[in-house]
Amino acid sequence: MDRYSRLVAWLKVLLPLTALGLLSTLFLLSRNIDPVASIPFAEAEIRDRLRDEQVTAPFFSGTTDGGDRITFSAGTLTMSTGQDNQASDLSAQIDLASGTRVVLFADAGRFDLVGGQSTLQGNVVITTSTGYKLASETLTADFDTLAIESPGAVMGDSPIGTLNAGKMRLERQGNGQNAHLIFTNGVKLVYEPLNQEE
């Protein structure tokens, strides 16, 4: 048996033994971990989750009576025994049958999932594919009939300038297929013409 063959034979024994020694020291020198301390929840959060049914990152989708598609998502949704379900970090997208898209964002909201009624609160932002970007503190919505209303003031940008109004409503009038944005209660529009290149 030559020198190379003897070396290979010894390495076949020594290398696996070295690997076993390294693995055993890895387990012997590892720190003890307290399984209770590793839970990433505070005690108050655990109590809240045990008291209420809570869903993380819920997602709902559906269609209104007029054929508009609605998708809704949130950071968390707390289900209650009644019809007062609370959500945080809300976003909703409405694809109208006419082709227009309306996107809603809010910090929080309350939902009646059975009745289809909801109230969005806190930094509500309404954006449409037609060029509107509006802000309000509160927005109520009936997703079954697609009646969305801001009971308080709205302000923001429109396709032709800045807009302020005491009230806003998105609704389908009569049997018409198209939904319209209606502004009332002291509407102020500052017209900003587009700069045209000469």
Question: What does this 3D model show about the protein?
Answer:
The protein is α+β, with helices and mostly antiparallel strands. The chain has a domain at 54-191: Lipopolysaccharide (LPS) transport protein A like domain (lipopolysaccharide transport protein A fold, Sandwich), CATH 2.60.450. It contains two helices and 14 strands. Strands 1, 2, 3, 4, 5, 6, 7, 8, 9, 10, 11, 12, 13 and 14 form a 14-stranded antiparallel β-sheet that branches. The longest helix is centred in the N-terminal third of the chain and has 27 residues, at 3-29. The relative contact order is 0.09.
Compact summary:
With 198 residues, the protein is of the alpha+beta class.
Q: What number is the mean pLDDT? A: 81
H-E order: HHEEEEEEEEEEEEEE
The first-level CATH class of one domain is given as Mainly Beta
Individual helix count = 2
Secondary structure layout plus pairing:
Blueprint: H1 3-29, H2 43-51, E1 53-56, E2 59-63, E3 69-73, E4 76-79, E5 85-95, E6 101-112, E7 117-128, E8 133-142, E9 147-150, E10 154-158, E11 161-165, E12 167-172, E13 179-184, E14 188-191
Antiparallel strand pairs: 1-4, 2-3, 3-5, 4-5, 5-6, 6-7, 7-8, 8-9, 8-10, 9-12, 10-11, 11-14, 12-13
